[in-house]
Amino acid sequence: MRNLLSPPKVMTFSATDPTGGAGLQADVLTLASMYCHPISIATAISVQDTKGVESLMPLDSKQIKEQAITVLNDVSVSVFKLGLLGSLENIRAVADILNSYPNTPVVIDPIISSGRGDILMNDEMKEEMIRLLFPKAFLITPNSIEARKFVCQENESIDDFSMKDTVGRLFNLGCKNILITGGHEQSKDIINTLYLKNGEIVPFKTERFFDEYHGSGCTLASAVAGFYAQGYSLREAVFEAVSFTSLALKNAFNIGEGQLIPDRFHWIFNNSSYEEDENSDNPTRH
Predict the structure, then answer these.
(1) How do residues 33-80 score in pLDDT, each as one tens digit?
(2) Is 13 exposed, middle or buried (0-12, 13-18, 19+ CB in 10 A)?
(3) Which of 2, 21, 168, 174 has the smallest number of CB atoms closer than 10 Å to its CB?
(4) CB neighbours (10 Å) of residue 143?
């Protein structure tokens, strides 16, 4: 008999990645892994391998709107997830789409550059994302360097910003909740920190792995969107997403000469699990 129950639908906007490591493909794999149905809107076509991005061709903003609106007229989605949008015009187009769905949560992974350092968002695009999209976001998930770059002015240096000052400025820009990923910070373990709009600060500690990974940020942001779509609270969704992503990195595999690919279906073959630290909500492997 046909099962009429439908998994939660998450609409994700991002650029394609032919390696399947990052971008739209990473979002689809992650969401499918947690029994969400991914509705994928391509914003750009990338030329890249596991070592870096060679070029990026944004799709026409009209195509972006047509892709999304056609589906949204037919399907109700639980969460929007935004990744690499590719152009100033595409940022504006996505903002227009979101204006029609003010009650649907939005998770933004604001990607400024690739892991190799290839610039994927210029200053004008950053300003437009801050103006049009950050105030609509239920959660943004920048890494610690990206977070500083979003709030740093021309006469300032990102080295002068504490994370407290950075988060304060992000809240002043209209962000409601902020998850700062800590992979770029100098610490023994990785500390991903959730800053909630009520003032609460929740750190999540995971083991640091010393390989380089292709699409770890995409995986984490999509996992948060997926768990939230499944009905978890934001704090619970981040906890589960951090655990999920850490295991995906632990079980990452190599397909080329560059970064490893996170295994988003690690749970099928892996019996690793997490337990709560007795003094916190942080996941620890055993």
Answers:
(1) 999 999 999 999 999 999 999 999 999 999 999 999 999 999 999 999
(2) buried
(3) 2
(4) 23
Task: Please give the Cα distance from 79 to 234 (Å, whole number).
Answer: 12
Q: Is-contact 21 15, C-beta < 8 A?
A: no
Which residue, 100, 79, 94, 162, is CA-closest to 129?
94
* CA-based nearest residue to 189, from 264, 120, 283: 283
Map residue 109 onto helix, strand or coil: coil
Contact 251, 243 (CB under 8 A): no
pLDDT digits 0-9 by tens, 133-155: 999 999 999 999 999 999 988 77
Tokens representing 267 are 């749970």
How many CA atoms are closer than 13 Å to the CA of 95, on its beta-carbon side? 16
Cα→Cα distances 278→157, 204, 206, 271, Å: 39, 13, 15, 22
Domain edges within the chain: 9-285
Which are the contacts of 131, defined by CB distance < 8 A and separation ≥ 6? none
State the DSSP H helix or E strand holding residue 284, giving kind and residue range, or none if neither. Answer: strand 283-285
What's domain 9-285's architecture?
Answer: 3-Layer(aba) Sandwich (3.40)
